[in-house]
Amino acid sequence: MTDALVPAREVFRNLGLPAVALFYLLGALAIVVFCGGAWARIRKYRRGRPSPRLRLAWERMLGGLAAIASHSTLRKRNAGTGLAHFAIFWGFAVLFAGTVIIMIDYDMVRLVNPAWRFWRGTFYLWYSLALDVMGLAFLAGLAVMMARRWGARPPALDYTRPDREPQAYSRRGYLRDDALFVWLLLALGVTGYVVEGARIAADRPPFETWSLVGWQLANALDTAGLSRPAANGLHWWTWWGHAVLALGFVAYLPYSKAVHILVDIANLLVRDEAAGRRLPAPLEGGASAGYATLADFTWKELLDLDACTKCGRCHVACPARAAGAPLSPRDLILGLREHAEDRLGGLSLLRETRVGPNGGEGTLIGPVIRPETLWACTTCLACVEACPVGIEHVPLIVQLRRKLVEDGTMDPSLQDALQHLDRYGNSFGQSERNRAKWTQGLPFKIKDARRDEVEYLWFVGDYAAYNPRVQEVSRAVARVLQRAGVDFGILYEAERNAGNDVRRVGEEGLFEKLAEHNMKTLAKCRFKTILTTDPHSYNTLKNEYPALGLDRPVVHYSELLADLLRSGRLAVARPAGAAVTYHDPCYLGRYNGVFDAPREVLGRIGARLTEMGRCRDNSFCCGAGGGRIWMDDSGQAERPSVNRIREAVGLQSVQYFVVACPKDVTMYEDAVKTSGQEGRIAVRDLAELVEEAV
């Protein structure tokens, strides 16, 4: 069988020594060029500050490799695109492995001991079948991607209009880079099949029927009247064309979009699953608490910039962009990438770079990113969750915000809220003595957890304590807990804002002050579990306070209500029967994975739930997070809360828009009024429906 392959297969034997030498010379040159580009990138990352991500990578190696192999991050938002990329990825990987096998078998094993050759017999038959099938998958995936990019043109791929930044990214260069990358891959796949078809047409070994595509191409060449000598000639030319393309691709890889093949794998292995949920501490010993220049970036953050493939998933998921604010997470990353190339050394073949004389010392905010772009972020984490390659946008935005706060560059209303929080411990500017005033309308006295031991210490939060409308919800929660016989208490005037949004605004010093006060108060209390009705407090208490010494579990009231209904401690007397839709709060759902408990509660009280199109981890933000609730939103084309109510009203049969967050109550009730939807849908808190049912 092997002898039949010699006339067309052993190309080098027929080419002669000069041609063989030329091939290996081109191969060596390609490797040198590749290594030069790879080292330039590594050198750039080494200029970043240290980050403990390599240890993290070893801890999650198996999980990271599984995500890469299965393409789970790519398939979760767009199954079709994810499947197409899966076919491209594994098709390319198998074809590359097949090429390596050929090189080892012919160029190494044959020279050492011909008896060791494995490219023969049954192995070769299955090898041929596997490569042809995976090559088809590779080309099919490319066809889908090309049709999507240049045919369907979804909004996610609309980066022809840059973000409103002083230094817009090189959109024409990126368009050329995308096109060159895709067409080069297509040329590699097609020429590989032509090489195979010409070889089979020249030799016609009967076992090559296992090469499904190559055999049919050989039949097509026969039908076209190509003689066997002509097929040999075609094979010679296409073999060299394919070889030059392949070697050119190797050299081209680190200087183009193709580098994501390597960079994205590394980025997925070193990503932090808690990114955004638990923010890093500010810089120690630096000139600024936040990021002022590229010199402040860690190597992981510089890697993030190169990892972006411009897929646009974060772009379409961002509520700020949907509201018309000057923020696109993708465009922010791309703008920073170009600035990094200009300052730290350009690597793009298709755009001009302007390497700055001061390295990474160029100021970011103003020349590269406008303050209003950073302040537009709601820190909803939709960009981080949607990103298939592990980019961590929110922590980076917060680091840049810290610099803005340090410089006093902020909305006046935000500044007022921070001053109130500093002076009174709440954003309403009210006396701490009024924090428990909402309890006066209850027919019973809530325990003071500072004096009495309790099972559940209820951390109420600002909006639940001070906002008149949300106070009604707090009283409903208290009555339901009392009815179920739950042993609970509150901190009364000793509670301060937990600091979740304060920290995400970038006011780290104030966060530390608030958290220190709360930790001292909690240390004096005797309790088993912290309960909260506020997802914002829930997130920081659960994910950030443990670093300060908190060692008790934290639960959201929806989780406790589900447990009480499940155990029978709460009995349903009047099933709700209402048609409802449920909004997943960002800090409860996407941040902390609490999706099922609220839905279980609705199901157990008899509500008829209809899901919105954007739900669970794809839920749409109300627009309040990251301190946005304290900022002016009059310049937005359509507030995120209005956008969300419009989505809910589109369900038509829904009576109630159910929420499980104090801020959501205020944001969405206002949205119902301003959008003219009063009478069509009503905003209800989960606890209010439970109280009516029990």
List keywords for this structure.
single chain, 694 residues, mainly alpha, five-stranded parallel beta sheet, four-stranded parallel beta sheet, 30 helices, 9 strands, elongated, disordered N terminus
Describe this structure in words.
The chain has 30 helices and nine strands. Helix 25 links the parallel strand 4 and strand 5 (554-556). Helix 12 packs across helix 13 (299-307) and helix 28 (640-649) packs across helix 29 (662-674). The chain is 56% helix and 4% strand. The chain starts with a helix and ends with a helix. The strands form two sheets. Strands 1-3-2-4-5 form a five-stranded parallel sheet. Strands 7-6-8-9 form a four-stranded parallel sheet, sandwiched between helices. Residues 1-10, 161-168 and 350-359 have low confidence and may be disordered. The protein has 694 residues and is mostly helical.
Summarize this entry quickly.
With 694 residues, the chain is mainly α.
